[in-house]
Design a protein that fits this description.
Helices cover 18% and strands 32% of the residues. It is an alpha+beta fold. It has 2 domains: 1-38; 49-173, Immunoglobulin-like. The N and C termini lie far apart (99 Å).
Length: 182
């Protein structure tokens, strides 16, 4: 058998390619390892605290006795992960309507019906005068987890959204108010 120098060079080149391929694979694994070793997202310590700034709207104003007014309470936040398919909502929202004779009507929601934290309803006043409307939201602590609630954000666990209030008034008159449509 003859020692062919071309065969030796081809064998050396093949070994180099194998070694370079193995080094490239090793480098990719080394670079990817920190990504694989990262812990999954979890709550921060200490939990974060957020102020809330609710708003209350009543329309139309003025309105006639027996005509509907729409009362809408809104939050400045939507809780992380809240959507229409889960129960991530602000807790214990209350709207108190104080009539001109100082009697009250209270509407309460254990959880906001809207994923953005809004509550809304129609009200038909039966007395002439100035009505007061008070929106109150309780402190909400984020207790939802990805294990029990789809969409929940683990990093928000135990974060707190503080209680908030907003108030407004509206006037009811004896005569109906002509409302334009369209």
């Amino acid at each position: 058998m003859t020692n062919n120098p071309l065969r030796k060079n081809a064998k050396i080149r093949g070994n180099r390619k194998t070694i370079l391929s193995m080094l490239a694979l090793l480098l990719m694994l080394i670079m990817a390892f920190p990504l694989l070793a990262l812990p999954t997202a979890s709550a921060h310590t200490p939990p974060w605290i957020y102020a809330t700034y609710p708003k209350i709207h009543v329309a139309p104003d003025p309105v006639g006795v027996g005509e509907n007014v729409e009362i809408i309470g809104v939050m400045n936040w939507a809780l992380p992960g809240a959507d229409y398919l889960n129960t991530i909502r602000f807790k214990n929202i209350k709207i108190t309507i104080t009539k001109p004779d100082n009697t009250t009507i209270v509407k309460h929601w254990n959880l906001a019906p809207d994923s953005g934290g809004s509550v809304f309803f129609l009200y038909k006043p039966e007395q002439v005068g100035v009505y007061k409307v008070l929106y109150e939201s309780d402190k909400t602590v984020y207790t939802w987890t990805p294990a029990d609630t789809p969409g929940a954000v683990a990093a928000s666990y135990n974060d707190t959204w503080l209680a908030g209030t907003a108030s407004t008034t509206f006037t009811v008159q004896k005569e109906p108010v002509a409302h334009q449509t369209g």
